[in-house]
Amino acid sequence: MLCFSCITPHPVVATPTIEKKMSEKIKNTIKSLKVLEEDLYISKPDIILLFSSSEDLKEDEFLINVSPTFKTDLKEFGDLVTQKEYKGDISLPNKIYETCLQKDLKVKLFTKEKLAYNFSIPLVYLTNHLSDVKILPITTSTQSYKKHVKLGEVIKEIILATNKRVAVVVSGDLSHALTSDSPAGFNKSGENFDNKIQELLNQKSLSGMLQLNEKNINDANETIFRQLLVMMGIMLNINYDYKSYCYEAPYGVGHLTANLKI
Hints:
Helices cover 37% and strands 22% of the residues. The radius of gyration is 17 Å and the shape is globular. It is α/β, with parallel strands linked by helices. It has one domain: Protocatechuate 4,5-dioxygenase, Chain B. It contains nine helices and eleven strands. A hairpin with a 6-residue loop joins strand 10 and strand 11. Strands 1, 2, 3, 4, 5, 6, 7, 8, 9, 10 and 11 form an eleven-stranded mixed beta sheet that branches.
C-alpha cells in the first residue's frame, strides 16, 4: 500500500557538515525537511521508492538500482562524516521491470552501491529514525513526459497490490536560472516555471503539467519535472492533500519541500 508521498530538494549546502554560514541561508528548507522526516516516520514505511534524475539527463531508459546494499557518500562536497547505509528492496524491482516492458517503457536494472548526492541528501534528513527501512532508487530518463506518467501508473498498481507499506520520495530542484548568480545564469522562464509548478501542484493538475511548453521547461534549467510527472502518475485517483512546507531560492535555485498527505 502507498503510505506516504513527498517532494524534497537536494541542496548541497544542506549537507550536515557544510559550513553553517552557508546552510543558514536555507534554514527554512532544513527545518521543513525535519518536519517531513517526522511525517515519514509516522507513516511507518517498509520501503522508500526514491526518484531523481541522472546528472547529465541523458539516460534514455528508466534506471532501477537493485543493489542489495546502499551507502550515502558526500565526500565530494567536503563532508567526510555523514554516512548512512541501507538495505535494498528485492520485492518490487522485477515486477516494475516486467510490467514496464509490457507497457513499452524502456527500463534497465543495474547495481551501484554508492548513492549520488541527489539521492543521498534527502535520505540523510528523512531516515534518521528509520534504520530498518529498505530503499529502491529509480532514475528518470529522456523518454517522453507521458511515459513518465505511465511509469507512475505502473508503479502505483504494483504498490497497491503489495502488502508492504511504500513511501514515495521525489528528489529534485526547481529552476537553476532565477538570478544572475544562479548556476545556469538568469532566464525569465525560471521564475515562471517555479510559480506555475507550485500552482499546478496545489491544483493537483497533471493535465496542466503536460500542457507546459517544453522549451520553457528546458530554459528554466530544472532537475525535477520528470520526477513530478512520475509522482503525479502514482497519485492519480488517490485522495490526498497537497501541503507545501517551504519554497525558497537564496542561491538562485528553487527548493521546494512538500507533503502529499494521503
